[in-house]
Amino acid sequence: MIDVTATAGTFADKRELTRALTAALIKWEKVPSIPLFLDNTAAFVHELEPESLANATGQSNYVRVQVLTPFGVLDREKKLGVVKEMTEIVASAAGDPTLSDRTWVLIVEAPDGGWGIDGHAYTNVEIGEAARRALSAG
Predict the structure, then answer these.
(1) CA-CA distance, 46 to 102, in Å (whole number)?
(2) Of 100, 81, 104, nearest to 91 (Cα)?
(3) In what order do the strands lie in the sheet with 2-7?
(4) pLDDT of residue 137
């Protein structure tokens, strides 16, 4: 799951932004393109009025991208890649290369057994088993 928070009007094409961010996450997680992952990887854009966002000096021209992923899926190399690529995607989507300096990407890991889909809290092992079943079913 990806949550993007920015002031209203930062992004002209939010659909393209969500598509690019989810594609990047799937790429870095190195999961297969099967419905289990394609249907359950999503991005949400939350727009705030400028007075609803500020850093310690009062500036509101920042973007926060919070990525929630199952525990242990992203090693250090993958985290570096996710942060770099998502920062580039955000700046490009905003049409403002300087936004890279004001984009925060936070990676949060759900605890093992804390990834809920269809009313079931999946463990990492169960997610892997479900993916293997889907791949073998062709």
Answers:
(1) 17
(2) 100
(3) 43-48, 2-7, 63-70, 103-110
(4) 87
| Cα separations in angstroms, 38 against 35, 61, 76 | 5, 31, 23
The burial of 109, by beta-carbon neighbours within 10 Å (0-12 exposed, 13-18 middle, 19 or more buried), is given as middle
Query: What amino acid occupies position 50?
Result: P
Report the pLDDT value the prediction gives residue 114, as an integer from 0 to 100.
Answer: 92
Extract the tokens encoding 34: 């099967």
Residue 46 · residue 5 · CB < 8 Å? yes
Q: Would you state the structure tokens that stand for residue 69, as one six-digit string?
A: 């992923």
Residues 111, 127: Cα–Cα separation, whole Å: 13
Q: Are 16 and 44 in contact (CB under 8 A)?
A: no
Q: Which two tokens stand for residue 118?
A: 């269809």
Torsional sign, CA 88, 9, 3, 48: positive
Could you tell me the mean pLDDT of each successive run of 10 residues in the chain, 138 residues long?
Answer: 97 98 97 92 96 93 96 96 98 98 97 92 92 88
